[in-house]
Amino acid sequence: MSTLIKHSVASILVLVFAIVFYIESLKLPETAARLPQVIIIVIAFLAVAMFVEAFIKRNKTKTANNEAEGEDIEKINVIRLLVFGAAIALYIFLINIIGYLIITPIFSFLTLMYLKATKLRIAILLSIGFTAFIYGLFVEFLSIPIPMGILA
Amino acid sequence: MNEIMSGLINVLSIWNLLALAVGMILGLFVGSMPGLSATMAIAILLPLTFGMDPATGITMLTSLYMGAMYGGSILAILVRTPGTPAAAATVMDGYKMTERGQAGKALGISLISSLVGGIVSGIVLLTVAPLLGKLALSIGAVELFAIAVLGLTIIASLAAGSVIKGLLAGSMGLLISFIGMDPITGTPRFTFGSIYLFDGISFVIALIGLFSIPQALKLVEKDKEVIKASKIKDKMLPSWQEIKALKGTLTRSSVIGVFTGLIPGTGGDTASWFSYNEAKRFSKQKNKFGTGHTEGLAAPEAANNAVVGGALIPTITLGVPGSSTTAVLLGGLMIHGIMPGPTLMTEHAEVTYTLLWAVLFSSIFLFVLGLLYTRLAVGVTKIPGKVLAPIIVLLCVIGTFAVNNSMVDVFIMFAFGIVGYFIDKLNIPVAPLVVGMILGMMLDTSLHQSLLIGDGSWLIFLQNPISAILLFIALISIFQSTPLFDKFIQLYNKRLRQDSK
Amino acid sequence: MLKVGLLKKSVGLFFLALILVLAACGNTEETSNAEGSNEESSDGGGEYPTKPIEVLIGFDPGGGSDQLAQLTQPYLKDYLGGSFANEYKPGASGGIAWTSIAQQTENDGYTITITPSPQVVTNYLINSELQYTLDDFDPIANVVTDPAVIVVPSDSEFDTYEDFAKYLEENPKGLNVSHSGVGGDDFFSLLRWKRQTDLDVEMVPYDGDGPSWQAAAGGDVDASFNNLGVVFSQIKEGNLKALALMSEERNEMLPDVPTLKELGVDVVAGSSRGYSAPKGIPEEAKQKLYEAFEKLSEDEEFKEQLKEVALPLDVKVGEEYADYLKQEEEVSSEIWEEVKHEYE
């Protein structure tokens, strides 16, 4: 994706964010709304400025050096990134339902295997060991509650 | 004088030395885990101290506080995962050093800086605490507003690359900090009907998301390793020469740390950014900041440990907690039947002076035990990034849950993580966002309080000498960061040269 | 291979460190747990409690509720023959914890909560988003009541409440007065006082009791409506002057400070802290808990400890506590209706 497209998407998202917050601020008493509204307007202005900046920069690089961009971007393994991100989301979603003790070793084992991080034996050891370690530290030693899910 | 001596003898008893050691180990450990904070650890361990002599119990907890302040930096330097909010500024130059394969050296400098900060604050506590205590009370809403404005000028100097992006990140941080109950009107702001947002977005949680999750994602996105493993023999302790070069930064940052700690409502998180900014202002190599520069690492590290002593000043002289951690410490004193308040220095002198010495001695324990713990921790850089990534995620999730015992916080943390990843990709600096979040509420609340006090007149900020001076400094800072300033300097230099001719 | 070896080593060391830490501190914890269970079996009488009672605290560790928990539980544990486990669930001024008590936790007597009043009622009166009311609770017992107090800076021109009131009669809204935040107990004490006296002041909200009195001590505001337990040591040391107390009677620790009642202003207000359970816990558990609090109110050592931290004991058990909370709800809701429009 070109820098310009990235920046325009970001600018639009920030503008949407600003608009949502501005609408919400209209419900507030005047004292509570004053400073946030000033800042929201500044944000909206800066979002537009960011887009303009990216636009000007692109024109400059176009005239100066056509292919400067491609070089510094190392190839990113998008699929791996997406799978890992989705795994985290799933883990967070399931931890409250199934419980920390069951889902954590599964998550760490599967991600370690998928990322080809270590050998099978070490992945097993690591996922069980780490789960036990955190459990011992939080629950047994510090008595901080963790999500127990179905084991509660 | 007598009390000072008996305090010294007290702290040197076997039990108290042991308490210092145990507290330090716990503090280092708790501090290095994202989500676990000194405040939480002290609250949890409080019941354990019931059986102890009050002085021993408090000694242990103080040592824990000191340890956690350093502990937070360990993973901040090694894997860009600050363990405590106070270590966020440490990431700026600390992690850059790790990327260059200088993890050991970075940890060594951070340890030395913490030691200096701790010792300076310990000495201040023992000598001039009663004098400074009154100062804490004189900081009112008007002065706080000026401090917040001055703090916001940091954003301009942190906006590396693009000023527009820096300001945008800073304003977003401010806006995010407004989420939650507005203390002036008592109405929930931007909570979108959810009671889970009534208290706003917890700073720790946003921080874990913004720094750690993007880091985990970055560790897996490429095939190449991100971090160069540091050489086994990478010397940890900096040479005397290097320490001497940091002399100015360390002293300045320690003083900033003590004063920031002194002010109720500001703590290590604020102090580290202030001192980072000042270090940059006074440095001869401004453009090296943010690239793994030792001054940029030493400044926040010295400051956040100096906060410990600073925050204890109003705590022991007035019974006013200087930070959230000292608030829990005060609670601990109460459980031991010691009424916190101005009588601490007189009626409970024995416990109080033991506590004061404990701050000084805990710095020494910090150095010795910290060195051992850090040697262990450097091993983290040898763990392959793809193994580290899932572990970072696990730590973040469970650490975030622990903060408020809430699953909603975990969702928020993850959302911040995703946003943080894309922010990085767009080269929008994260630091201004963090500074905005720290200062937003302080700015808004103190502004409205001041206006109420001053019958709605904005002149109140100029009539108050402290705030007028601070606002003037802020104005200069803004001027300094504009291109106009460079022109001005050039002009001035030219004039000088002409004059000498 | 080298990498894996090193990894193993560092993981191993990590565990070793953990075990050391556990060994150092785990011991003490284990012994205290063991003690708890011994008492349990030796007590023998009733069945309840057979496992630790969880106390849900809706505020951060170190706050007023936590303080009450830490102060009372060592005694309650013995009287009840069981143990306690505190769980902190801060958020929405206690609202998150109380909503979970009302909607989620089981009413088996093994989960109770700390309810500071008037906060526990004013909270949902002010914020319609909160989905709980007093009817979702079985109030167990109130333990302490910290009376409201009017304090002024030590160098203030006002030495008595009469001076203060007279000045305000001549200069309506002529003074800035701090309180601990909109919806807090001091906010309501202040409103109650304003309603009774027809005097008016500029109300300046701060974030909690501490910042509120500090604003007065530092001269930012002219007076602060606060709580005695919070400012007692400051009064004693001369950082603040107390003008009037809002309790039924004078306090023995400050015998020279009059009550508003004596001065002809009929306001009794303050901040109370007690324990409540979710609605409908088993009768046996209820009676056992009542009994424990009755015994606590007689405990000389406990009384002594409260005195040291300047918190007046005010034990109200069962029905009496429930009535008290109902009354607080009525008064607060009346006052809030009157001033509501200013805050929306």
Report on this model:
The complex is a heterotrimer of chains A (152), B (501) and C (344). Chain A has helices at residues 3-25, 30-64, 69-72, 78-98, 100-114, 120-141. Chain A folds into 2 domains: 3-72; 78-151, no CATH class. In chain A, 79% of the residues lie in helices and 0% in strands. Chain A is mostly helical and 152 residues long. Chain A contains 6 helices and no strands. With 501 residues, chain B is mainly α. The radius of gyration of chain B is 22 Å and the shape is globular. Chain B contains 21 helices and 2 strands. In chain B, α4 (54-79) packs across α6 (103-138) and α7 crosses α12. Chain B has a two-stranded antiparallel ribbon. The longest helix of chain B has 36 residues, at 103-138. Chain B has helices at 2-11, 14-32, 38-45, 54-79, 88-99, 103-138, 141-158, 163-177, 203-221, 240-245, 247-262, 268-282, 294-318, 324-335, 349-377, 385-404, 407-425, 431-453, 460-463, 465-480, 483-500, and strands at 180-181, 188-189. Helix content of chain C is 48%, strand content 19%. The longest helix of chain C is centred in the first third of the chain and has 42 residues, at 2-43. Chain C is globular, with a radius of gyration of 23 Å. Chain C has 2 domains: 46-145 and 271-343, Bordetella uptake gene, domain 1 (D-Maltodextrin-Binding Protein, domain 2, 3-Layer(aba) Sandwich), CATH 3.40.190.150; 146-245, D-Maltodextrin-Binding Protein, domain 2, CATH 3.40.190.10. Chain C contains 11 helices and 10 strands. In chain C, strands 1, 2, 3, 4, 5, 6, 7, 8, 9 and 10 form a 10-stranded mixed beta sheet that branches. Chain C has helices spanning 2-43, 64-80, 95-103, 119-126, 161-170, 185-197, 209-217, 228-237, 283-298, 300-308, 319-339; strands at 53-57, 84-88, 111-117, 137-153, 176-179, 202-205, 223-227, 240-245, 270-278, 313-317. In chain C, α6 links the parallel β5 and β6. By secondary structure, chain C is α/β, with parallel strands linked by helices. At the A-B interface, α1, α2, α4, α5 and α6 of A face α3, α8, α9, α16 and α17 of B.
